[in-house]
From TrEMBL:
Recorded family membership: Belongs to the FAD-binding oxidoreductase/transferase type 4 family.
The name this protein goes by in its record: D-lactate dehydrogenase (cytochrome)
Annotated Gene Ontology cellular component terms: mitochondrion
EC number annotated for this UniProt entry: 1.1.2.4
Compartment(s): Mitochondrion
PROSITE patterns found in the cross-reference section: FAD_PCMH
Length: 577
């Protein structure tokens, strides 16, 4: 049972990854006990074990050692890439010392699937190979593991989600929420097997309150479809978490579900409108044991109690299922404009962008694309024109007619002062989309150039504004030194930028990992973050302690422990027990 709307247009279909080994065979150093422990089910006694249970800890450590050696041997025999450096090695050793949880036996997992089928019907749960693969592997993720979920459930309502949670809780089956499936750090991979819970059937606008400027939606509502449906009201949802792909008139828009809320997603408009979490009024949550709660009523602001919206928004599915949300809407601006300009260096471009923000010019978006990225757009030839292969800034303007012109004049002045070319401005709305399309095409275009069998590493960091130009410059130099096909692109007005590197996983993993990790460490040292919007997932767990500190991590663990004492919700993500 594959979702028809997820079918990638032929133009953008990726080459097969790696022959018979379809998954990247990277050693998941962040796994608790080596890759081979990521088996779907274990014939062990079910139930959680805590650090106090020494015999369990001993047996797990013994298993860890054995699995690790076996895992490495298997990898070496297959000619795959082993653990890459001392830092990772140390991290993995530390991980092995921590307590772990044991999940459902094979038999109990079977019982859970049967019970869910009884509750949801035949179509409500699938063990079809295609479904398992689609929910455990991603072509555009920076990290994949050799483990799929055992089943995929397709609930239709909050009540059905609660039933799934109660059954999984009874049998200690891991549950992994899944909405658009577009996250890139292994967020929805089934690190411990279990049941992926796909919200594809929950894609309705539940209520629309134009007079209150809000909307109540289910998890799989596409933000673009939603905006299309409500545009007559003069309102829109301004968070723009990613590019649509247009191919032969086909709008590939279902991809970024509105519930990008599950990670602190944002996008090009964040410099003006903030990030996803700023637009959530309330959420309906199903906890791992099946309890249902609503975080708040429906006022645009509330100071009643803890900010549960913030808690669940950034949890990446590790605390509960979000089954409904009320989102704020904004007024569609009277006038808009799009402008483009290029610069001799990345530093010049970054300096100009930051100066625009510092001077308080309310741009709708300011996006930086490097020379490689502009060249890629030319090579794809989708935009109907030839761009200068130079660091380039794309701006969006919005507001009143007079305000937009004022802002364009202000930006133009700053661009010239930072050695930029004349601003190419488009105020005709029908032509703006064509100009902005180049920006929206960026990452897809890059992915389309991936050679058969090669990998993509897509990552993001963010730093305070005063550090952006330095970090962009040094990261660009590192990327050039790496000598691989890699580009930089940034929501630079927020101090947030991305690197995308295409590489041969068998030969080049180590050098790419070093390049990416150096950038991440540098960003954190500059008081920044290892991820401005993509989130932690599996791929960035190792940076959590460096960034937030052990005390903050211990508070996060305590919250997790109290809501999900058996670590059933999306285990293996964000941090470990
Ligand atoms: C080409 C491309 C461009 C991108 N550009 C951007 C960008 O500009 N900005 C940006 O922020 N990101 C970007 N991303 C990353 C990604 O698309 C976004 O982060 C997006 O918000 C993920 O949403 P999703 O619905 O696909 O989540 P999924 O991938 O389905 O899930 C993400 C996480 O949320 C959890 N989750 C999913 N649904 C629920 C639920 N109902 N309840 C609880 N937890 C849930 C999952 O378990 C997982 O941990 C890009 C990705 C690609 C491939």
């Amino acid at each position: 049972m594959l979702r028809p709307f997820r079918a990638v247009p032929a133009r953008y279909r990726f080459p097969a990854t790696s022959g018979s080994h379809t998954f990247r065979q990277r050693v998941l150093w962040s796994s608790p006990i080596g890759r081979s422990q990521f088996s779907t089910v274990k014939d062990t006694k079910r139930g959680p074990r805590f650090s106090g249970d020494k015999s369990w800890t001993r047996s797990m450590l013994a298993a860890a050692g054995g699995s690790l050696i076996t895992g490495l041997l298997i990898f070496n025999l297959r000619g795959q890439v082993p653990i890459v450096d001392a830092e990772h090695e140390q991290h993995r050793k530390n991980e092995q010392k921590k307590p772990r949880y044991v999940y459902a036996s094979k038999e109990d997992l079977g019982k859970a699937i049967l019970e869910i089928r009884k509750e949801l019907g035949e179509e409500g749960i699938s063990t079809d190979d295609d479904d398992l693969r689609q929910h455990g592997f991603s072509e555009w993720s920076s990290i994949n593991i050799d483990q799929l979920p055992t089943a995929v459930a397709f609930p239709n309502s909050t009540e059905q989600v609660a039933k799934i949670a109660r059954i999984c809780s009874k049998y200690k089956v891991p549950m992994i929420p899944y909405s658009g499936g577009s996250s890139v750090e292994g967020h929805f991979s089934a690190a411990f097997g279990g049941i992926s819970v796909d919200f594809m059937n929950m894609c309705d606008i539940v209520e629309f309150h134009p007079e209150d400027m809000d909307i109540v939606v289910q998890p799989s509502v596409s933000w673009m479809d939603m905006n299309e449906k409500i545009k007559e009201s003069g309102l829109f949802f301004p968070i723009d978490p990613g590019p649509p792909v247009r191919s032969s008139g086909f709008l590939y828009s279902c991809f970024w579900s509105v519930f990008s809320a599950n990670i602190h997603a944002s996008g090009t408009n964040a410099v003006r409108y903030g990030t996803m979490k700023d637009w959530v009024i309330n959420m309906t949550i199903v906890l791992p044991d099946g309890r249902i709660l609503k975080t708040r009523q429906r006022p645009r602001k509330s100071s009643a109690g803890y900010n549960l919206n913030g808690l669940f928004t950034g949890a990446e599915g590790t605390l509960g299922f979000v089954t409904e949300a009320t989102l704020k809407l904004a007024r569609i601006p009277e006038e808009t404009g799009v402008a483009v300009t290029s610069f001799p260096t990345m530093r010049d471009a970054a300096n100009a962008a930051i100066q625009v923000v510092r001077e308080g010019i309310p741009v709708g978006a300011v996006e930086l694309l490097d020379d490689v990225q502009m060249d890629v757009i030319n090579r794809m030839g989708d935009t109907g024109r030839e761009w200068k292969a130079k660091p380039t800034l794309f701006f969006k303007f919005s507001g009143t007619k007079v305000g937009v012109q004022d802002n364009i004049d202000g930006v133009s002045h700053i661009v010239h002062a930072n050695h930029g070319s004349d601003l190419e401005v488009e105020k005709d709305t029908s032509k703006q989309e064509a100009l902005w399309f180049a920006r929206k095409q960026a990452l897809w275009s890059m992915l389309c150039l991936r050679k058969s069998g090669h990998e993509v590493w897509s990552t993001d960091v963010a730093v305070p504004l005063s550090k952006v130009s330095d970090l962009v410059e040094v990261s660009k130099k590192d990327l050039d030194k790496l000598g691989l096909f890699g580009s930089m692109l940034g929501h630079i007005g927020d101090g947030n930028f991305h690197e995308t590197i295409l590489y041969d996983g068998k030969k080049e993993y180590k050098s790419v990992a070093k390049c990416v990790h150096d950038m991440v460490h540098r960003a954190i040292e500059m008081e920044g973050t290892c991820t401005g919007e993509h989130g932690i997932g599996l791929g960035k767990k190792e940076f959590m302690a460096q960034e937030v500190g052990e005390e903050s991590l211990s508070v996060m663990r305590a919250i997790k422990q109290s809501l999900d004492p058996y670590w059933l919700m999306n285990p293996g993500k964000v941090f470990d027990p």
